[in-house]
Amino acid sequence: MCEQLEQNFTGKTVQDRIRECLEYGIKNKETNNDNISTIQYNVVDVFSGAGGLSRGFMDAGFNVVLGVDFDDAALKTFQENHGHADIMKLDLFDHNNIEKIVDYLNDKKIDLDVLVGGPPCQGFSLAGKREEFDKRNVLYSAMVKVAQRLKPKIVVLENVPGMLTLYNGVGAQRVREDFEDIGYELAEPQILYAPEYGVPQIRKRVFFVMKLKEEIKGTFEYPEPEFTEAQFVTTEQAISDLPSLVGTENYLLNQLWDYKEQALSTYQEIMRKDSKIIHNHIPTKHADETVRLISLVPEGKNYKALPLKELEKRKFKYNEALTRYHSKKPSRTIDTGHRTHFHYKYNRIPTVRENARLQSFPDDFIFYGNKQEQYRQVGNAVPPLLGKAVAKKVKELLDNEKK
């Protein structure tokens, strides 16, 4: 029982996990909802993190039943933001843990339709002979083995674009071969550009979509771009309605904010649609010197725009140091909180909520854990709107099979 508590609940102590278990049971009893759906397609998300990809599938009408990760804070975030989905804390370096996923779905009598995930890319970073015992292979191989055991109709794997060119394309070829060996056919992988799907951020991700040949006869088509460059949602259109935090000296983690302004763009209206209050909008206390330096950087520029006398005083380690976003363009790629990117107007880094907006997480999607964990969850996620665009095409393919 203690082992099951550790897998499915995220408290730091046994007592915390027991309390969460009781609260979950009471909530489930009151709503009388089950995560088994006879209408929607069922989704499992491995290497889920906070669940940006599966949130996109959920928003496209899929039934997300389970998120699997090894990060307590990310799993808490996943569970609180994916309806009645369950979570499992599993170390997928140990492939024996895959059976726990299989047992869970069997016990719940859930037929898995779609497996999604973004395994860490170390498993692809190998040229030459692939050895089963090489630990760098194990995490990626776990996703292949989950698919082999559960035979979902569709597998969606996302990763960094470099996957296509790394070691002359060995990583992408490996994905093709490994999934073909277990009965899947790979649609030609494609890099999707987030601003073309309504995400106010310069971000590219590569998607591999595999269909189970014995189940799916149709062909998967990637989503066509929905926005031209002239229509891209800008940083200002994404976050200008959020409180400025100017003069704020409260750095407590769980403070809440009211919406002090009306939504100033269609994008903001969409982000605020199901939220009455602002979470995760916590300022960061910067050193006075940092504030002074960033105040000298025009929007859209970085440390290279500092006066020469400032550049002569110090060396900057990162190419993107002191990067200030441009209000009239999408933001730069959201990182995991390394304090290199700054608000287009204010002399501070964006808050977790501002980064979440730039990643297309709606305001009712609340992040848990300490502030560093929250930044990491946002930065590592697939933008939900990008996930939704892929999900709609997956749904279209599955629906066509039923006609």
Automatic annotation (TrEMBL):
Q: GO molecular-function annotation terms? A: DNA (cytosine-5-)-methyltransferase activity
Q: Which InterPro entries match?
A: C5-Methyltransferase, C5_DNA_meth_AS, C5_MeTfrase, C5_meth_CS, SAM-dependent_MTases_sf
Q: Which UniProt keywords apply?
A: Methyltransferase, Restriction system, S-adenosyl-L-methionine, Transferase
Which GO biological process entries does UniProt record here? DNA restriction-modification system; methylation
Q: Which reaction does it catalyse?
A: a 2'-deoxycytidine in DNA + S-adenosyl-L-methionine = a 5-methyl-2'-deoxycytidine in DNA + S-adenosyl-L-homocysteine + H(+)
Q: Would you say which domain of life the source belongs to?
A: Bacteria
Q: Cite the Pfam families for this sequence.
A: DNA_methylase (PF00145)
Look up the EC number in the record and give it.
Answer: 2.1.1.37
Show the active-site residues: 121
Root EC class: transferase
Entry-linked NCBIfam families: dcm (TIGR00675)
Q: Which family does it belong to?
A: Belongs to the class I-like SAM-binding methyltransferase superfamily. C5-methyltransferase family.
Protein name according to UniProt:
Cytosine-specific methyltransferase
The species this protein belongs to is: Fundicoccus ignavus
